[in-house]
Amino acid sequence: MIFKELASVISTGEIADGIFESCLHAPQISGETRPGQFINILPHQSWNKVMRRPMSVASQEDGEISIIYKAVGEGTRIMSQWKKGDRVDIIGPLGNCWTGFEITYPVLIGGGVGIAPIINLHHQLKKLSIDHILIMGARRKGEHFFSHEPESKRYVSTDDGSVGITGNVVDALREIYPQNEFPEKCKIFSCGPSQMMEGVRQYALQYKIPCDLALETIMACGFGICQGCTIEKIPSAKNEHSYRNRFALACMDGSIFNAEEIVSCR
């Protein structure tokens, strides 16, 4: 069930360079949300832009939810200045959720501000005592709020080599599995910048690893009316040329897609 809820800000803080976490009291949405889903946010009551701001939920528990984001535009800059007690208009939970992690060996891969649904799944797997690994990528050390702990199956990578594995998340995969010998029933769950996820998608297809990707795209409504979050699919029926056979909506059909069903993450 989807709710429109006036949430109350519990806290907002900078957790890494330019990256913020906000916690909101939103009992209706919190009670229905599953890891991988997102909300659509009106940054301020006087917001006069057409589009809300879609944000993946990083946690949901005890009537609260959290989001993690980078302050890069007008909307997210307003959000980074939220104070305790501020009221925020949000819609959710939206989209689908992660599946298949109970019967596989999950390899979680997150990058940039696309880490929220990966963090959420990571905590869910810990609660369920499901063995998995976590790989987090960033450009440099200051953008990480996770530590590099290979002994705990938690890895970070940086483009500049300032912490953890040097390179991107695919480089990290190659270092962790240098002989391309993957755990039995391995499955990749990934979210991050489009270029990063396309690299992960190509890697997964190359080695025939099941892979689900949470695609981040611009959207306005969040529930299929505006058609602004179109994703090109590999047609399921070659002789059918309908729009819905060739295109999906990230908000309704995703935002999580299997690597084999989409043309590209870009």
Order of helices and strands: EEHEEEHEEHEEEHEHEEHEHE
> Averaged pLDDT, please?
92
Q: Approximately what portion of the residues adopt beta-strand conformation? A: 25-35%
Distance between the termini: 30 Å
Low-pLDDT segments: none
Overall 3D shape = globular
Structural class: alpha/beta
Helical content stands at 10-25%
The strands making up the biggest β-sheet line up spatially as: 10-9-8-7-11-12-15
Number of strands: 15
Rg estimate, integer Å: 18 Å
Please give the largest β-sheet. 7 strands, mixed
Helical segment tally? 7
Comma- or semicolon-separated keywords:
266 residues, alpha/beta, 20% helix, 7 helices, single chain
Task: Describe, in plain words, how this protein is organized in 3D.
With 266 residues, this protein is of the alpha/beta class. Helix content is 20%, strand content 33%. The chain contains seven helices and 15 strands. The protein has helices at residues 27-32, 74-80, 116-127, 169-176, 194-206, 243-246, 250-253; strands at residues 3-16, 19-25, 38-42, 53-61, 64-70, 87-94, 105-111, 133-138, 154-158, 165-166, 186-191, 211-214, 230-232, 247-249, 256-258. The strands form three sheets. Strands 10-9-8-7-11-12-15 form a seven-stranded mixed sheet, sandwiched between helices. Strand 4 (53-61) and strand 5 form a beta hairpin. The longest helix is centred in the C-terminal third of the chain and has 13 residues, at 194-206. The protein is globular, with a radius of gyration of 18 Å. The chain starts with a strand and ends in an 8-residue tail after the last strand. 43% of the residues are buried.
